Every structure is written in structure tokens, then in C-alpha cells.
Amino acid sequence: xxxxxxxxxxxxxxxxxxxxxxxxxxxxxxxxxxxxxxxxxxxxxxxxxxxxxxxxxxxxxxxxxxxxxxxxxxxxxxxxxxxxxxxxxxxxxxxxxxxxxxxxxxxxxxxxxxxxxxxxxxxxxxxxxxxxxxxxxxxxxxxxxxxxxxxxxxxxxxxxxxxxxxxxxxxxxxxxxxxxxxxxxxxxxxxxxxxxxxxxxxxxxxxxxxxxxxxxxxxxxxxxxxx
Length: 227
Fold this sequence. Notes:
- By secondary structure, the chain is α/β, with parallel strands linked by helices.
- The chain folds into two domains: 8-100 and 179-207, 2-Layer Sandwich (Nucleotidyltransferase, domain 5), CATH 3.30.420; 102-174, Nucleotidyltransferase, domain 5.
- It has helices spanning 44-55, 74-91, 100-110, 145-149, 161-164, 166-177, 179-194, and strands spanning 8-13, 18-24, 29-35, 62-68, 95-98, 118-123, 127-131, 138-140, 154-156, 213-215, 220-222.
- The strands form three sheets. A five-stranded mixed β-sheet has the order 3-2-1-4-5, sandwiched between helices. A four-stranded mixed β-sheet has the order 8-7-6-9. Strands 10-11 form a two-stranded antiparallel ribbon.
- Strand 6 and strand 7 form a beta hairpin.
């Protein structure tokens, strides 16, 4: 898909405790950010209306949609994906998924962080996601995080600063503040290259299932916790 100048993208990210909605083209963006903890479903539609009203446009003016696919909040990601997919079906516009960790890293690098900075996010109550550039996201068990990171530069989001340090938390907070612009820029790149994802098969990436649940190739069932 060639997205020409002035064509609006509506992007959503619900991977963190901040519910993010951003509407923009290649010139300007309108953003709604709310600290919602895990109540994304109570705010997201209102935020979409908010950015449309502030930009004085309607959904009819939106040329494409983007949604953060994680890693991150188990419930939040499903709220964001369900909302974005419903709008894509209803409006018949292309939808692309964008890894939330990639958008966070791009925002951090734009603010001066090193290119190879790793992103660390909580995965459930005790585990963590570790996202490095060019590598699959790791699910790190409790107690293994410091060893897994070593001396790498990291940013953290939704975590207490005492675990990996105040500087990692500061970089993460700054990246979260600027994530909207990064989300839009990655979405525009993906729309130019892939034209849009298959809406039916687009799912959250790297979600840690609740303990005691396993993901099989054919079905989803209960199992002993193997971690």
C-alpha cells in the first residue's frame, strides 16, 4: 500500500499501563495518553473519539490502522487487538501490527539511547520479557533477569526502578512519552512494505499464558506449570 502525503493513520498501543492512541500523517500527530493500569477497555474507545475530535476528523478520514502487538499486558493487548481488528473489518481499511518493544526502542534511540538498547517489560506477576534488537523476545523467569541482561543497556517500563536501576526506568519513561511518534513511523514503513497484515490471523506477540496453561499447535489446554 502506498500511503500518500496527508493520509491519516490511527494507531493504538495497550501493551503497558499507559493506553496510547495516536492519529497522524506525515506532518503532525494528535495523541491521547492515559495511565489506566489494567483498565484499557474502560478508556480506549473514549480516547479514539478524543483524538478524532481534537483533529476535527472522523473515522471516514482514516486511511489505515496500526496496533501494538506486545510484548506486554495479557489483557491490555487483547483489548487493543480486538478494537483495532473490529475497526479494520468495519471500515475496510488496512491494519498493521507493530511490536510495542520496537516502538519503545525507536523512541528511546531518538532521545539519545544507544541503538542496541534492550527493552524489559513485566510478564505477569513475576516473570519478565526481554526484547533485544534482531532477536526473539525472551521470557525470563524470576531471579534470572540480572544474569540474562549482564552489562547491556536497558530500558524498563511498568517496573520498580530498584530492580534494574533508576536510569533504565528514566529511559523507559521518556520512551513511553514519545512512543506515539515511533508507533506511527513504524506503521507507515510497514504499510509501505507489506500493505497490511491479515486481520483474521493478527494476534498479540509473545504473550505469557497464565501459569498452568500451555499452548499447543492444535488447541489450548491445561497442563502442569513447567517453568
